[in-house]
Amino acid sequence: MRLYLVRHGKAEFGPEEADRKLSARGVADVQAMAQYLAAQEIRVQRVVHSGLVRARETAEILAAHLAPDLPLEQVVGLAPWGDVEKFSKVVEKWHVDTLVCGHEPFLGLAASALLCGDEHANLVMVKTGTVMALEPSPYGPKWQLRWMLTPRIVRGPKEDEEQ
């Protein structure tokens, strides 16, 4: 089972946190990531996202390439300040490759908790549009980081487009 932790793409600025959509750059970054992952033959059997618009939009773009025709699931607790301990226990029960679209600081805390058991270890910085692939460790109860990709790695240097 592989767990893909994905931070939503760059979002528009706005007053309503829940209603912020992906910006043009956010859409382009996530599209590029989706195309790259599909070319690497990455497939998932489950796609979950927080209830915030930008995470759902990110999940929709990725799912179109990695899990066509798969229904998306909105999961409570993946918001920026979600319950990391609860999430860590829930993912232990999952048995299929799953893509989780969420937010910072939740994803960084969750990755640290899964990798070393301490959500405050501050092991990774999860920039917008980043995808991390984790697998359960064959050597113990924790997880291993298989790889991590940012849009900058996939797309190359920034171009003249909306920030």
CATH topology: Rossmann fold
Tell me the strand order in the biggest sheet: 3-2-4-1-5-6
Q: Indicate the low-confidence ranges by residue numbers.
A: none
| Backbone shape | globular
What is the gyration radius calculated from CA atoms? 15 Å
Order of helices and strands: EHEHEHEHEEH
Number of helices: 5
Structural class: alpha/beta
Mean pLDDT: 94
Walk me through the structure.
- The chain has 163 residues and is of the alpha/beta class.
- The protein has a single domain (3-12, 20-155), classed as Rossmann fold (3-Layer(aba) Sandwich).
- The chain has helices at 24-39, 53-66, 84-91, 106-116, 151-155; strands at 3-7, 46-49, 73-74, 98-102, 131-136, 143-149.
- Strands 3-2-4-1-5-6 form a 6-stranded mixed β-sheet.
- Helix 1 packs parallel to helix 2 (53-66) and helix 3 (84-91) packs across helix 4.
- The longest helix is centred in the first third of the chain and has 16 residues, at 24-39.
- The radius of gyration is 15 Å and the shape is globular.
